Amino acid sequence: MAFTEGSATLIAERTGSGSDVFLLVHGLGMGRSVFGELARRLEGTVVAVDLPGFGAAPEPDLPLTMPQHADLIAAHLVAADLPAVTVIGHSMGSQVAAELAVRHPDRVRAVVLAAPTVDAGARRVARQALRFLQDTASVDPRVVIRGVREYLRAGPHIVRKIRATVAHRPEDVYPRISVPTLVVRGSRDPVSPPAWTRAVADAIPQGEYAEIPGCGHETMIRDAGPAADRIREFLGGI
To answer: What are the residue ranges spanned by the domains of the chain?
Structure first.
């Protein structure tokens, strides 16, 4: 279903059933389609979104900031009459998830930040692009093809969207997250290096760190099984 507020429209796809609700927020240049396997492995109601200008969602007048994405998602959750969610954000989506937890704490039960960006020590477009290229070199070609397709669908404003992502300072948001949070990193992820990812978990009052062996930045996309198992374990302890 499409949800519009102002000039921004997101697409939300709901699957599964149950009182536990998972909200899946994709990364830069991606869309809800990358979460197909993860959605099938989660036990409960799953809501996967295409953020404005990504996937099947139409382009807004201007690319949204991370707080604006979070506010739009919160408005959708209210309109859909959904209970507090476990929000799972991948890459750029982790920035949106963090903002959602801080700006709308009544809408969030727990947070999973997978491959969190942007490393505060490498907040430059060129540096981030190089790291993404390094990650791509070791990724399953099927994932690369899917990613290229989604980037093309992201439209002519992709550079503006990249700048909005890099300009955001998630490290200022993390200490204000008040709910249990799992920070997940693939062991071979050059985009979210270990020092940065551990610092993210340490900055969050109820933060917990986990590393998925053998995965790069595409954690939860190439093989969702290990991440789904770790998320299940995390939620069982809160």
So the answer is: 2-230
